[in-house]
Design brief:
It is a single chain. This protein is mostly beta strands and about 180 residues long. It has one domain: Lipocalin (Beta Barrel). It has two helices and eleven strands. A hairpin with a 4-residue loop joins strand 4 and strand 5. The two termini are about 30 Å apart.
Length: about 180
């Protein structure tokens, strides 16, 4: 019996070979930071996201597809959120999603260090690199599920997506952060 338990435990802790993980929307957020008139850095996040992460650590390959619900934008100030969701900014009714799709995972030694992909927003597609600052795959002891998680950050120019309102007073450069957790179904 002890051998069986040890075998099951070892199987759960062993690195997964190529697998597809489903994004956990309760632990996945895209957030942003932007300069506001030179006085402060304004921050916000999108509260709803979904997607999949494929990862094969042995082959150092995979893909990441993240869908972010535009209408879930949250800066902590409802009046501003409604303006940003509206026709002069994100046009959430016409463009309900922002997408990040990877083309290439980049490794430094055996560690995932960046992801090259495309950001799709307001009907525009632009290349984007996300630098990975944290990455881990393994058994989540709380949920007893195998998963992967990451923190990643990239920079975009909002004017390249047609969001040039207020430039240069409101910054053109936006720092996008994505914290993701994804688990085997």
């Amino acid at each position: 019996m002890k051998r069986i338990i040890a075998l099951i435990f070892a199987t759960l802790l062993a690195p997964a070979q190529g697998a597809e993980y489903v994004v956990d929307p309760t632990h996945t957020y895209a957030s942003f930071e932007i300069d506001h008139l030179g006085f402060s850095t304004q921050r916000g996040q999108f509260n709803q996201s979904s997607g999949v992460v494929e990862f094969d650590p042995a082959a150092k390959t995979g893909r990441i597809d993240i869908s972010i619900e535009t209408a879930s934008l949250d800066t902590g100030f409802e009046l501003r959120d409604n303006v940003l969701r509206g026709d002069d900014w994100f046009k959430a009714k016409d463009y309900p999603y922002i997408f990040f799709r990877s083309q290439k995972l980049i490794f430094t030694d055996d560690k995932l260090s960046a992801v090259d992909g495309s950001l799709v927003m307001l009907g525009e597609i632009r290349p984007m690199r996300l630098e990975v600052t944290r990455f881990k795959c393994g058994l989540n002891l709380a949920s007893r599920k195998r998963g992967c998680g990451a923190d990643a950050v990239g920079v975009l120019k909002r004017s390249e997506f047609g969001l040039s309102n207020g430039v240069p007073f409101i910054g053109d450069e936006v720092r996008l952060r994505i914290q993701v957790e994804a688990y085997l179904p």
